Amino acid sequence: MQENNGLKQRFAAWARSEQGAVLLLVLAAFLLRAAYAWAAGAIPPWNDMAEWDKARLGILNGQPYTANWTPLYPALLAGVSRLFGAGYYPLYLFNSLLVALAGLFTYLAAREIFGRRTALLALALSVLYADTVWYSSLLLAENLGIFLVALLTWRFVKDGSPWANGFLFGLTCLAKGLFLALLPGFLVWTWLRDRNGPWLRRAAIFTGMALLTLLPWGVRNTLVYKAPVLLEPHWASAVLVGHNPYATGGCDYYFLDHDYGKFYFDESLSPVEKNRVFLAKALEFMRDNPLKELKLTVLRASKHLTFATSFVFYGAEYPARKFLFAAAALQHMLLFPLCAFGMAFAFRDRGAFGPAMIVAILAVVFITLFSANTRMRLPLVPAMLLLASHGALLLPGLLARIKAGETAGIRGPLAAGTIASLLLFANFAYQVLTRLGDVAGRFN
User: Fold this and answer.
1) Which residues pair with 250 in a beta bridge?
2) Which of 224, 291, 318, 433 has a Cα-to-Cα distance from 300 of 20 to 30 A?
3) Do 117 and 109 contact (CB within 8 A), yes or no?
4) For residue 69, what are the contacts with CB-CB under 8 A and spacing of at least 6?
5) CB of 324 within 8 A of CB of 129?
6) pLDDT (tens digit, 9 = 90+) per residue, 284-305?
7) Which residue range(s) make up the domain with 57?
8) Ordered DSSP codes for 208-224
9) Within 226-320, where are the H helices?
10) 311 lies in the same domain as 260
11) How far is the C-alpha of 60 from the C-alpha of 38, rounded, in Å?
12) Average pLDDT over residues 349-373
């Protein structure tokens, strides 16, 4: 009995330690997603998920790779299936592990930049983040993207080898091609960290290693598609969704209901030819409709920063989907303003520049080029949670300084963070008033 009490006391002391808290939170993140995936396991892959599954099975059976997407995620899924069998639940457990480890790397990056309290809060938020709970049961590469971006952020914060970082960035692009947009930001981050040292050499090594990692895939694409294709041959389809006469700012394919979209189903066009049509039509619309483009940009930003508009929320009877939808909306109502506050102060800190850069670049790319789609919001989740935690823990001290009239040196970031937060809250209220009924009706 006395021995049992001693074990309980030692476990309680370990759980209260930082190391114990971190391990328990990472385990909780994994188990929560694994449990949800178990509950959703009866729903087979469909739509985009069916394509990822087809690619996995092709690799597993030694068939030529025919998917028009980057290969890293289905290759890893095939490896999981080879080790644990062809069922779907091991794949969902793999997703759950990726997201749980992304939370760990977010904690490690936050620990280096802002300290223990911010790091633990960021990790706790990652455990409860609703979007990644239900995404664990989806065969989508965003699960891998979250993990790789969190890992790469931590390595940059730790000032890791540019050789290894470049290789990792190449792998990140092979998970989701859109991450190539982060290259300029990582180069600026390198300059900020080493501008009094060999920054140009480090940037060249990073870029060269990333391109070298992508080279075999690019050569393969050029041979398969008979045209230069670095990552994916159909990337401009997502651009057209956001830039056409029937666009709404959301992830809506209304143009397919009209003659305008007939080419989409033209099987005589190769993926590369169809991609050229996507891009040409999108650019033509942008050029000929500047005022509507401006309006659509505002709509994309407004929708992107509130309700989820991804088809996956409404397309199948996932467990507790209404609850998770509401939880995600309420979480983002708080997380986006807190992230804006954290960003306003992070840009002044060289060490914190990276997460702020990731959020800024991806948000601008998604809002200007694509459409308001939950899937496009997920890659910036680790950096967003890190900055939101920073913003949340800044608030008490900022309020005390404001009350004491001691705002010298912080007026610029304080004003920027306050204005951005108020705009985000106002936008959320506007979206609730104008779109909640329509969005909720999609579940029926």
Assistant:
1) 372
2) 318
3) no
4) 51, 52, 55, 141, 232
5) no
6) 999 999 999 999 998 888 887 7
7) 2-230+304-441
8) HHHHHHHHHHHHHHHHH
9) 236-242, 271-288, 290-304
10) no
11) 23
12) 81
